[in-house]
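Researcher: Structure for this, please.
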Amino acid sequence: MKKIFTFAGLLCVSVSMYAQSVKISGVVSDDMGPAAGATVKVKGAKTGTITDLDGRYTINADKGDILVFSYVGAKTVEKKVEGNVLDVLLAADVRDIDEVVVTAIGIKQEKKKLGYTTQQVDGAEIAAHLHHWSTPPLDAQSGSGTPPRTHTLDRDLLRRRLASLLEAGRQFNGAPLTSFRMGRWDLKNSVRPLLAEQGITLDSSVCPLRQHKGGPDHFLAPADPYWVDGATPDGTPLLEAPITQIPLLRPLPALWRALIRDIPRRDAFHFWGALSANPFWHNARVMRAAARLHHARGGKVLSIFWHSSELMPGGSPQTPDQRAADAHFEKIFSFFRWLRDRLPVQGVTAAQLRAEAPRMAFPHRPSGPGDW
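Model: Predicted structure, token format:
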């Protein structure tokens, strides 16, 4: 009974506090215009929101509270609440990338004190994505006809193309790239050792419930990360972090794979028997259902992806113009807001996930046929 009264007393205090709060709204901008996706928080509280496509936000706060505005590539700004409208112009953060980085647990440290590579800054990361058919060094077949499968390429040529990509990324980024995805999901077991050999510590080339004719078989791959054989030259093991695509019913994939021998028909499973949070594959309702079901099944990682061209006006059939691109952005932001409000989530980059992985008890690769 004492606990109940204590809770009730706290609830009354909370109600009285919220009664004094006001709704603050405004626009967050930087030197490029509206800052879509900027974070707005009440300092010292858990209250927060993000700006929409036009940089607009609305948040409840008390007069006298401090609002903290942060955005990738901009200096964090703190403003005192004095009225109902608060617009903010963010200045670019031009500090040297080597000066301060954000570690996997969100604590700012000097780069020289960190024990792992630091390509992630302010919650973003530059990773490697190999188009193995068009990355230098080129040969007579480059750019002509259907791109070859990775396992059919000369192994030394593939190794040199991967090294070329990673070196270009290192020069641009100022630090080695340690996260990777193969173009067109075209990663077979025979190719994976090249990744660890080049210093990759996390791969995300596996798309569960898919199998392409002549290509890799990822059909029975699990949705959560797992450790695979292979290690970098310094002994760091390789983590496979598949895209989160899950079956409606757990027994379905094994049953479908056993019954259907025709590869295109088998691959069609993902059209009717799978859920994911990909905004270009599914509508918002399916995206939310995928997140809920994955969480209910004990999933630890929700991996979401899309191709950059899908957000460019004219870059894909789904995005013919700016209006379509804005709609996609709003769909993605709305999903992330829903995810933040409904499930216990924490956003991380691939490198941050790899840094946390030893503490997350991921299994070694489960048994089963396939190139995952």
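Researcher: Any notable elements?
Model: The longest helix spans residues 322-342. The first strand starts at residue 22 and ends at 30.
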